[in-house]
Structure formats: structure tokens, C-alpha cells
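Lecture 7 notes. Example A: sequence first, then its C-alpha cells.
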Amino acid sequence: MSIAKKSLLLVLVLGLTFILTSCGIEEFDFTLNEDFSGSLVNVSLMADEQLEAETISNRHFIEDPKLKLLSDEKIERVVDNVKMVGDKRVFEFSHISDIPKMGFQVKEEDGIVTLSAPMYGAIEEAAEREEQKQLWNMLMKAGFKVSVAVNLPGKVLETNATEYNDNRVLWDLMNTDLLVQDTYWVKYKAEHIAPVDEQFVTEAAAYLQSQGILKGSDKGLELDKELNRVEGALIYARVIGLESEIEQFKNQPDPNYVMPFKDIPDWALSEISYLNYKGLINGISADMFGSKDYMTGDQLATLLLRAKGYSDAKGDFVWNKALQKAVEIGMLKEEDKAFIEKELGFTRGEMALLVSRYFQHK
């Protein structure tokens, strides 16, 4: 069976699945290096946990010889109060144009790079492309969400992306404006950013540990491990010095306060309760904090910017561009931001870098 027909078959299965389940998410998040090698994080989620996640997952990506599978894990996420389950897979590739099922093309001239891909995959025959468009519209009407994002080694100049900042673009492929276009594309100016000295990250983590802000386990500080929302909230509480207030609240709680979240581990209950009581953190829904969800660099940067007196509510910055705001005020360097954003996950080591820069910034 040809690649095109396999793609059509996959979309047909997706369409039937999501008409039945009414909800599904497919995310492709690329991190691109200067030589166009990089990594891909693919997340496939569906609302009905009774159905096999592989029904919707891009399992055929694992069979692609141009992609090296680095990790494969089951995940959960709450979206609009709906619990979703599925897979998160991380791949490595030597050149982004070598992934035939995505169809990326790269053109480079005088330091300006144009990256583009066909809206409906690498399908050349007009009849098959038209059929793909019809199936794609069916998915959109069924509530299916598909996005492609790329973290770029340079500054965005032009793009038809749904969302973008200086170094990242995201296309919502279910967006009606994009559906009428043949390609999604970005033009950026290639930039060389000096890498962060990882020795500094290790030293920053050791300093935070000595101050009681970062705590390890029998496995050490686990700087390569992704930071989850509970860990991030606890670190934030220590950074702004709330330990004594938390202890007092634990011993003398407000009788009118009721902890709304059902997913807080016992070892973090006091801290999360107080932070929520003070209005410093929110959940992902009315009764879920999202304890198993991972924190992002922008989310922690948002908390740290608020601690410095900046308000996203008043328009000082936008929460999902908090790292860029941190660069603008001098709290972070461009290479720090690039280090944090080089991959989709936000690790404990990247957190140590961000928090240490917070303390250094006057």
C-alpha cells in the first residue's frame, strides 16, 4: 500500500473514531537544530479511556526508518474538564525533510530559511488530495484537534502559523483559514546562539539544594527529569519564602476554606492548599490541580514574574510568552531561553537555571 493510501486510511480511521468519541487530540512538536536535525514529540489523546489508545495513535511513525524512537509512554491530560488518555512518543531525526509522512521542505538562501509542508500530507495525486480534504473536514466537524509546532534555531520573519513568537510557530491544522491553503510555512532568519554551559546548570541546582529550594531523592537531583505541576508549585513556594506561613496555616487552617482539588498527593497537601487559599495557583479544572501534568517553562516564569511585581492580568505580559518577557527585562539571556525551549519538556535542570537567574536579577 502506498504512503498516500496509508495516510488516507489513517485519517478515515481517525474520522470514524472521533465521530464516536467526539474528542481527540494529535500534536506534533518539533525542535529544530541549525543543521535541520532535531527531535519530535508526538502526543495522541482520546477522551474514551475504554477504547485502545492505539486506535488513534500514529503507530506507523515508529516504523519509519528515518525516525529513531527515544521514548514511548502512556499519559493522561484533562482538557475542558474531560479526562483524556493516550501516548507520548519522542523521536530523533537527522533532517526534517527526511520524514516522508510530514512532507517538510527546506529552502535556505543568504541565512534566510523557508520551512514548508503540504496541508494534507505528502500526497501528489489530485483525487487523493481532494479525498483527504473531505476527510479532514469531517475530523474538524467531529471536534478533532491537530497541531504542528516547531521550535526554530532563529527568528521568525514571516509565517501563516496560527500562533507564533520570535522562535516558535504553531499551526492549528483544524483552523478554517488554514484548511483552504495548500501549505503551512514559516520563513526565519537563522541565528547562532551560544549554548548554555551545563556546568552552570549543575552548580545552580547544587546551590538551590543548599538553600532548601530543590530537594532530591535516593536517585539524586534528577536534573533530566521533567518538572510536574506539584513539584513546580512547591519550588515556587520555597522561592518566595512561604514555608513559615504554610506551617502556620497547617496548624491553624481557615475553617471556611475547603481544598477543591482531588488529585493532590499527601506529601504536598499543605503547600498546595495554602497556595490555592492565597490565590497564587489555580487548577486545570474546578476539582483537579493536574498533579501528574508537566509544568512548562512559561508557566514557572509566569509565577516568578508575578513575584517580581509584573502582572499578566494587567497586561504587563502574556503568560504563554513569559520566558520572552523574562529576556526583555534582563532576567534571562537569549541563550537561557534557547536552552529551556530546546525541547518540549521542562526539566528540573532547566528549572534550576530559571530560578537561579531569578535570584540573580535585581
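Example B, a different protein, same format:
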Amino acid sequence: MWNVIYSLVEVIVVLVPILLSVAFMTIIERKVIASIQRRTGPNVVGVYGVLQPFSDALKLIVKEIIVPHQANKVLLFMAPMVTLTFSLLG
């Protein structure tokens, strides 16, 4: 039992800083691109744009899934998962 808890804590300790760094790198990237283009950066969402990556993630989650009429629905939804699985295993 303690091995499982210890493993979960290890995973959380590794993943949380990575996810936070990706979120803040997104903010920095948007600020740099905005300054290069001489426009206002993503400072509208939250304080100094801190919530911008979370609003982007929410936008991606609630996007409509478009399925072509004659497409094989099982293959359409399983192909990305199979590809990701094989790329992580290989």
C-alpha cells in the first residue's frame, strides 16, 4: 500500500513542476510575440495573464468534435490514442 502512495507522490512531484513550467512558458511566449508585434499581450485573463494557459486548455477541451459523415468513427477516435501509445512505448 505504501509503495503505491509513494509512487503516486513521486509522479506528482515530477509532473506538477513540468506542467507549471509549460504554463508559464506559454505566458512568456505570448508576451514576447506580443512585444515583437507591438501589441498588448495576454494580460486580460486574470492577473498578468496567469490564467491564460488554463483558459486555453478549457477552450481546447470544449471544442466541437467534427466527424465526417462517411468516416469510420472507431478508427477516427482510436487512431490518435494508438499512435500516442506506440510513440511512448517505442
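Note on Example B: The first helix runs from residue 2 to 36. The chain has three helices and no strands.
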